DNA sequence: TTGTAGGCGTTATCAT
DNA sequence: ATGATAACGCCTACAA
């Protein structure tokens, strides 16, 4: 009934097996040059005592913790939790634990979180996107923590990354609308400060429209926080414009849901009166009525790939600095010919 | 250009400030009995060298890691990622890091994950639900790791918990349907093995119906995996029954979405031809057409409360063994009078 | 108030 | 192949 629930130490195992602590350690880490006789004797002692190695002590001696950190903007966006799922599963497979911190798009918070993780002791770090404070990079370098960024496609020597193009599919979505005859096109996007992905998508939209000779007026770009209700508000604002846009490009699926809802509430038919696009391809996108035209972001695959690549890098293996995954647009029922075209035909 | 990027140690700070390592340590942990003069001198040295304490070494000496583990079934269900969000934010506030592992409703996997966490060294653990293997409890006790369970309302001396009733609101939902005149009621639920929450909900449904004199025949209970498509399949199966059920109780919102979609596809109007209920109150529930009648699960609050309570417990404070939160039913448009009633009136 | 020295539980470098 | 023993980096009695 002692206060400290006497757990056993490596030393106890050594004593029980009548060998040295070094030998126990060797068995534990199945090092070479261990006789089968000794191994089994030690193993028996381990089993009998129910000995569990002390991770912290091991970490101190090894200078390897067995954990990596993931710093993500938020987990409330399913696209990130899906990525984390993939990451965690694969890390577990590699026998690494996952530490998580969120910073809600506040890059200073990201720095603090990173500082905490480094102090905690992590063997590697995953960051989202290309927008970070200089301090972030400095910390990473100072403590030479292996790291990887993701979700963007910027080739930057400072930022090894596993990502996808945000601008390109955004561009394709806009071209798709243009091809359908739309000329009055508006954009609903997430705040672009500290969010290169949102910026890249907006840039893609803009670029495609401009090469089609369509300029995106400031009042045609509405920036709102993430959320269904927010998307609805954005549409209501856009529908007060004259002429009304015939198509809405949304920065993500959730905003698109909000836009579609508001449209229905306004009596607008989709896609006959209004075309809508999203970005992410959340599970429900294909089930909406009509199904949402969007971009399929390989969230789970990115998570898996991040795990494999970071582990390889931590092992000192040479891994590609830049890995790009496909983020194809998927065209569904929420986009259709522009009303004018339909009418005038 | 040495291999090891010379980071500074506490010893270096001591030397730079011309004090003992003990003094530096005292400043670091702002212990009492430190003169202001010494403190500022040490602080200056710390700042100048950019010294960061070595968490692992500190953990070994202190026997306190500054991290807690959360073992959740999955992160692909938004209800859990929302809880994790709340948990992580609050833990950060308490200056704790969060380790995450998922076990996909495989309790043996949960044990393995827990073992990993304990070995890793965590100061506390969060578990979901009341269904666990005996080994889970044994590990927790053996290593006396403070722990908390959540999401259920079972009063069990072994399981301190912060949760809510699953059966009660399920019951209320069923009663609500009965009150609306429904007699042919079916249930679509998630697999109940290793999932006490799903079981409790099913039990609540069943209980309410039975006290209304309605028996839930086996073919009226369809069990499917989590997912929208799965919900749709379940409804298709149920609609082959004669007579067709006039109301569907779903184990969670996602299944309910699937059910509603399939219903629409079959030309059934909701709620005129079919009433549908969910459980969770995901963000989109209120935005569906019609809006979903469901149960509002306080996911984020649970996360916050878990953090506060676990931290208090780790500090040795006396905390309630059992905390219950409200999970009120919210009645919306997806439920309405039974067709027969409407017709016969 | 400040300093000295031993300990936290493993690993890893030497010998043997 | 196995065994001593010195790190690993910090905390904390205990001493001054």
From TrEMBL, chains A, B:
One of its GO terms (molecular function) is transcription cis-regulatory region binding. Residues 10-62 form the HTH lacI-type domain. SUPFAM superfamilies: lambda repressor-like DNA-binding domains, Periplasmic binding protein-like I. It comes from the Bacteria. The keyword Transcription applies. InterPro entries: HTH_LacI, LacI/GalR-like_sensor, Lambda_DNA-bd_dom_sf, Peripla_BP_I. Keywords: DNA-binding, Transcription, Transcription regulation. The keyword Transcription regulation applies. CDD domains: HTH_LacI, PBP1_LacI-like. Signal peptide: none annotated. Transmembrane segments: none annotated. This is LacI family transcriptional regulator. The lineage of its organism: Bacteria, Pseudomonadati, Pseudomonadota, Gammaproteobacteria, Oceanospirillales.
